[in-house]
């Protein structure tokens, strides 16, 4: 299953004048988290132009430099109290995490905390101060027009969210929400909101139809109607966003745009989560992408863009809680897509990968000894045809272990039909949608055809069949690839006869 996810993202503006964009959140609770360079390679391959980080990791920001990708960085909740109580601490944070990276890294927003009012209520009294201190540091650096400052809210801060026209923010938070909205209005920023129709559906006791949560078409008599405005709602997402608009207008704020910082659907759940399935995740995210990029807006504000970050890039297997918590990703940690998005007719954005073109390549930061051992295995027990790597052959150059391993890994992966587990090689390989062919060196799979399984070929090596020497097979006497090449060359020259 392959998804060629073309995040064709055109503008950061969430106002009516700009085009909406789809971005992606990058969580890091992953056992075998890809390196920053590998993450950026995946982002580039999928044409992702907007990402949100949950911190301001230096290595990640350096990897994103000179890519043009628009980056939202975050002040983690555990740093919020310090920043909210000291403008010096805030200024130092901006110096370290913003000034050290711009303009090479295209930082366009700072999310101060995450769902603070509901997740960290003891920090609520300093939340607005934290935003103001961060903003002041940006003003001092003349970056306040380039970088917007806001804070993501859980949609649970909105009470009586249906009908949307009756929605209002929890009055408990008025001492925070009113000055916060004044800040957003005065700085031209946006209300950041996390919108999860999955949870609304799960908690509705069957009051919300699954189709209504998944953006599936509804007959007119099944659409939800706001009796006060007579506006028709065909999906939960629009209803929640409009509830936020009405809640702001209840406090006399009518010109603050909304940016959805998280939305998605899990692809797997436990026995109490029967609707967390690949098909439903596929349906929700596919329909969400179409809905946002069509600049449809909402019934209250048709045509006003609601740009959205999908939660999330990778499945985070280290997250605690129900099974669904670990399965919101579009990709596995090795770069393989979790499911194929159904986006026929969506134009050039997020277009389906109809050619099924994925490749297996060596990780750029992998240990060279591990790569060499895996290369030996692929050209030995793996039964890969490695003759194109011989000196004078099309794939000999560049003559290094990363390039040669990439060719061998991909040849094995294609031969095994791209089946799960065949692009691992003890953790030194990763799946990509970028064709690694170069010059006259054409990699297997470049024509977009699936490989064919070879019944007598063993599976790709894993830690279970490794040895202490780093050899990736207990059945193959590991040696250098150079020795293998010399051996093959001698056979071809007739010096050795088998």
Write the layout of secondary structure elements.
Blueprint: E1 22-26, H1 36-45, E2 50-53, H2 58-63, E3 70-75, H3 80-85, H4 87-99, E4 106-112, H5 116-119, H6 127-140, E5 148-150, E6 152-154, E7 158-159, E8 168-169, H7 174-187, E9 191-194, H8 197-202, H9 210-213, E10 224-225, E11 232-233, H10 236-250, E12 258-263, H11 278-293, E13 308-310, E14 359-362, H12 368-379, H13 401-415, E15 429-432, H14 481-493
Parallel strand pairs: 1-2, 1-13, 2-3, 3-4, 4-5, 6-9, 9-12, 12-13
Antiparallel strand pairs: 7-8, 10-11, 14-15
Helix pairs in contact: 4-6, 6-7, 12-13
Overview features:
alpha/beta, two-stranded antiparallel ribbon, 498 residues, nine-stranded parallel beta sheet
* SSE string, helices as H and strands as E: EHEHEHHEHHEEEEHEHHEEHEHEEHHEH
Helix content: 25-40%
Helical run tally: 14
> Between the first and last Cα atoms, what is the distance in angstroms?
41 Å
Shape: globular
Whole-number mean pLDDT: 83
Low-confidence region ranges:
1-17, 344-355, 448-498
Describe the structure.
It is a single chain. The chain has 498 residues and is an alpha/beta fold. Helices cover 30% and strands 11% of the residues. It contains 14 helices and 15 strands. The chain has helices at 36-45, 58-63, 80-85, 87-99, 116-119, 127-140, 174-187, 197-202, 210-213, 236-250, 278-293, 368-379, 401-415, 481-493; strands at residues 22-26, 50-53, 70-75, 106-112, 148-150, 152-154, 158-159, 168-169, 191-194, 224-225, 232-233, 258-263, 308-310, 359-362, 429-432. It has a nine-stranded parallel beta sheet with strand order 5-4-3-2-1-13-12-9-6. A two-stranded antiparallel ribbon has the order 7-8. The protein has a two-stranded antiparallel ribbon with strand order 10-11. Helix 4 crosses helix 6 (127-140), helix 6 (127-140) runs parallel beside helix 7 (174-187) and helix 12 (368-379) crosses helix 13. It is an enzyme of class 3 (hydrolase). Its EC number is 3.2.1.39.
